[in-house]
Amino acid sequence: AKEPVRVLVTGAAGASFSGQIGYALVPMIARGVMLGADQPVILHMLDIPPAAEALNGVKMELVDAAFPLLKGVVATTDAVEACTGVNVAVMVGGFPRKEGMERKDVMSKNVSIYKAQASALEKHAAANCKVLVVANPANTNALILKEFAPSIPDKNISCLTRLDHNRALGQISERLNVQVSDVKNVIIWGNHSSSQYPDVNHATVKTPAGEKPVRELVANDECSGAAIIKARKLSSALSAASSACDHIRDWVLGTPEGTWVSMGVYSDGSYNVPAGLIYSFPVTCKNGEWCIVQGLPIDEFSRKKMDATAEELSEEKALAYSCLS
Ligand code: NAX
């Protein structure tokens, strides 16, 4: 039998507002959706003291569900205890934007949360721990985490744009009336925000006559980012949780041959995206490592969109840094 993998979920109580991603996510992990049906897991759940009781309730439910793969549950409000020995960390906890709050104030709260949790992970997580940041602003929270956990390799820190990616696949399948499993290779470029660029120029659909470019089947404007973003505003917990599982599963177990996925990763300057941002790229994964898909032709329209979302991320980065001083 395999050794259990320790998976941290922060914000696991899902206690503060509408989404409750953590509550949807932990049973998926315990069922093997994230790491495979033969991979035992130990769940580490972190939340803040006001949510401690709710968190304990989630723990009781996990025990009641008698998941065969679940070898243990740590439910705590102590970041050090939560981070100790974890192999995978899914960061769902954060400070939500509230009505009337300044952008800078929200950023400042999240910067301090991610700074502190970065240190806890850096000191106490297992070597080679893989980190996925879900909480918004996801790209910039991931960047802060990277800055304050310098011993965690850049390659191990990512943010979630897989929900946007999966949504694009789902939308195309709805529009073309085909199975979602027959659609692949959309790309989400940039920030997990309304500036992101969902790109269908390289996407294909499997048809009885072979693989066809999505572009030949849907009119240009039909698949515009705006339509997808509009749908993206829907409340999402189950789909976010499922996409987080997809993100980690593909990262750890690999992407299928000929298929890429979108991940927010540390830019190395590929596609002239400024290095030093956490930016969503098309990636393939093998042996536990992602690799940016290179050499895709980029038209002028796409270039502008990719630059605009990079620009927003540079601004967010500057804002985050201004909160540090
Ligand atoms: P919930 O409010 O339901 O859950 C958040 C949990 O985090 C709460 O239990 C809260 O107590 C906890 N928390 C707050 N500060 C914490 C801290 N310092 N340490 C540990 N836990 C802490 O929010 P939910 O709807 O689950 O959304 C979670 C985050 O995901 C939000 O930031 C949301 O904006 C973001 N999302 C990101 C998505 C993505 O694709 N990247 C999509 C879904 C979602 O919008």
TrEMBL record:
Identification of the protein by name: Malate dehydrogenase
Pfam families registered for this protein in UniProt: Ldh_1_C, Ldh_1_N
Family: Belongs to the LDH/MDH superfamily. MDH type 2 family.
Catalysed reactions, as listed in the record: (S)-malate + NAD(+) = oxaloacetate + NADH + H(+)
GO MF term set: L-malate dehydrogenase (NAD+) activity
Residues that, per the record, bind substrate: 97, 103, 136, 167
This protein's UniProt keywords: NAD, Oxidoreductase, Tricarboxylic acid cycle
InterPro entries given in the database record: L-lactate/malate_DH (IPR001557), Lactate/malate_DH_C (IPR022383), Lactate/malate_DH_N (IPR001236), Lactate_DH/Glyco_Ohase_4_C (IPR015955), Malate_DH_AS (IPR001252), Malate_DH_NAD-dep_euk (IPR011274), Malate_DH_type2 (IPR010945), NAD(P)-bd_dom_sf (IPR036291)
Location of the Lactate/malate dehydrogenase C-terminal domain: 161-318
Gene: MDH2
Source organism: Ipomoea batatas (Sweet potato)
Span of domain Lactate/malate dehydrogenase N-terminal: 6-157
